[in-house]
Specification:
By secondary structure, the protein is α/β, with parallel strands linked by helices. 34% of the residues lie in helices and 20% in strands.
């Protein structure tokens, strides 16, 4: 069986100008990064603003398991299937982070015969967007420390610095560091911290900004510290906005690549859904909606994280109205939720499936709260039995969900036609009455409790004293109308990864709350979630190599 990278390396790609021509994009509106990657100009994005929108389809999934679900694979395969059916479709995805690529999770290019290419470029440096975000983040950190060193005219309290440095790599030893050691000229000694680039507020800002003007305003609103009177100090007060924006001037432009079957794909931005809002850029999504009749996008991890944040943060901020949701599951993952060991998932086990399907049930209920029609798809494996597939199909249809099998990993677009037909049927026959989970004016604590009870199934919320104090301060500062971004483990509805299925009888504990004033949301941190991941005992980097001809191996 061929690996994903072997399939991708055998692909015959079209020059990216030919892919762009499918969408009516002229060569003058492209900024080329080699033969197969290009950025779309700001001028083009602005020129299509008055066109009508296509249909917006969100792809999400059940909680991830070691058995795999295939959300990105399904997104890509669905787009390819629309192409095979003669429909004008664009896929809008996130860019992968280097941390997971060299760690344990892998990349974000899809898999099998449903991938976006060039796969190696996408999973590694791509067009440099993440490097630009990292540089802008760390420029702000350097300017902040330099301001303190050069006299501290803003009276910044060095015990209340909240801006962190970042890098796009899993490096646990950088979570808590001491900076400024050495002589007086080496800076002020203080504790500092690193986050992974995809958790940087600048990543969130880039993905929520409509244009350069909006980006600069958001950058200026970033709170970097507090002064001795407890008042916020912003990036604008440090005169950092112009320089940061200069570093991001190209990164804000959406990237155009293609699938294995030459379906256009806009891949732009990449915030994690367990510690950020987990969606590709607003600019890419809005541009895609003007270029195609159908736009397939995805939100990270399970629907309890990515989909909820897509609806309550991205759609709220960008005035998007999704038309349908595709919820991805696998028989194997459902049996894993039913207590079956990973090594035994290939064996038919209807009883375990019945126990584990409660995870899917909760996700269906959650998505239906937003008023958007749901199509459930099973990412098919050869070990799935007909009896198991039939049970899931009836289970979903009994809950007013359309259902289709997906075989896109094995067959590409051809294997997604049944799913595409079901999505089209849903779009034609079921109206989306999209609504958000909570209104802007709801108090922050009530927003947190609403998410915890209505999405996670918790009985309530508890707070550490520090989190409770921070929540009160953020409200007093006038930010109580912002949406909430929950930072939580992706593996369970619970705030630790130990409870599979559909846990009940628990409360969500909030250990930290902080404000992302530039991005425009409040982050509530649950459990032991980390904003700087670590590498596993055997990282994926162990298997990656490149030969004398520049051919990369071991990248999935």
């Amino acid at each position: 069986m061929k690996t994903d990278i072997e399939i991708a390396q055998e692909a015959v790609m079209l020059p990216i100008r030919e892919v762009a021509q499918q969408l009516g994009i002229e060569e003058e509106d492209l900024e080329f990064y080699g033969k197969y990657k290009a950025k779309i100009s700001n001028e083009y994005c602005k020129s299509v603003e008055d066109r009508p929108d296509g249909k917006l389809i969100l792809v999400t999934a059940i909680n991830p398991t070691p058995a795999g679900e295939g959300k990105t694979t399904t997104s890509v395969g669905l787009g390819q299937a629309f192409g095979k059916m003669g429909k004008k479709a664009v896929i809008a995805l996130r860019e992968p982070s280097l941390g997971p690529c060299f760690g344990i999770k892998g990349g974000a290019a899809g898999g099998g015969y449903a991938q976006v290419v060039p796969m190696e470029d996408l999973n590694l440096h791509f067009t440099g967007d993440f490097h630009a975000i990292t540089s802008a983040n760390n420029l702000l950190a350097a300017l902040l420390d330099n301001h303190i060193q050069q006299g501290n005219a803003l009276n910044i309290d060095t015990r209340q610095i909240v801006w962190k440095r970042c890098m796009d790599m899993n490096d646990r030893v950088l979570r808590n560091v001491v900076v400024g050691l050495g002589s007086k000229m080496d800076g002020f000694v203080r504790e500092d911290h690193f986050v992974i680039t995809v958790a940087s507020e600048i990543m969130a800002i880039l993905c929520l900004a409509n244009d350069m003007e909006d980006l600069k305003e958001r950058l200026g609103n970033i709170i970097v510290a507090y002064n001795y009177d407890g008042e916020p100090v912003t990036a604008a007060q440090l005169n950092a906005v112009g320089a940061m924006a200069a570093l991001l001037k190209d990164a804000i432009k959406p990237n155009l690549i293609q699938t294995l079957e030459h379906t256009p794909a806009l891949v732009h931005g990449g915030p994690f859904a367990n510690i950020a809002h987990g969606c590709n850029s607003v600019k890419a999504t809005k541009t895609a909606l003007k270029m195609a009749d159908y736009v397939i996008t995805e939100a990270g991890f399970g629907a309890d994280l990515g989909a909820e944040k897509f609806f309550d943060i991205k759609c709220r901020k960008a005035d998007l109205k999704p038309d349908a949701v595709v919820l991805v599951a696998t028989i194997r993952a459902l049996k894993y939720n039913g207590g079956v060991a990973k090594s035994d998932l290939s064996e038919p086990n209807l009883e375990a499936l019945k126990r584990g399907i409660v995870n899917l049930e909760k996700h269906i209920e959650n998505l239906q709260q937003f008023g958007v029609p749901v199509v459930v798809t099973l990412n098919s494996f050869v070990t799935d039995s007909e009896e198991e597939n039939a049970y899931v199909k009836k289970f979903c249809e009994d809950r007013n969900c359309d259902f289709a099998l997906s075989e896109v990993w094995e067959k590409g677009g051809e294997g997604g036609i049944a799913l595409a037909e079901k999505v089209l049927e849903t779009l034609e026959n079921k109206k989306s009455d999209f609504t958000m989970l909570y209104p802007d004016e709801m108090p922050l604590a009530d927003k947190i409790e609403t998410i915890a009870t209505k999405i996670y199934g918790a009985d309530g919320v508890t707070y550490t004293p520090a989190a409770k104090k921070a929540l009160a301060k953020i409200t007093d500062m006038g930010y109580g109308n912002l949406p909430v971004c929950m930072a939580k483990t992706q593996y369970s509805f619970f705030f630790f990864l130990t409870k599979l299925g559909r846990p009940t009888g628990f409360k969500i504990n909030i250990r930290e709350v902080y404000l992302n004033a530039g991005a425009g949301f409040v982050v509530a941190v649950t459990g032991a979630i980390m904003t700087m991941p670590g590498l596993p005992k055997k990282p994926a980097a162990d298997n990656i190599d490149v030969d004398a001809d520049g051919v990369i191996t071991g990248l999935f």
